[in-house]
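User: Fold this; tokens only.

Assistant: Input:
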Amino acid sequence: MAILMRLLVAVVGLVGGSLLLTHSYQLTHLFGYNSLAERYLGNGGTYSMWKLIGVLSILGSLWYAFH
């Protein structure tokens, strides 16, 4: 049962992370610009923030599933 739960988390993390990567433009226009991301990541930092969250989601879910 625990293996199925880990695989479910992996699938949800992969799908969610890939959606964050592909739809960062739409998310930025839906939620607005993030001033901290713009300050520390430069121009277009909000788009980069969404992409970083997507990559971290994918990596974190894979780590949880196969660790």
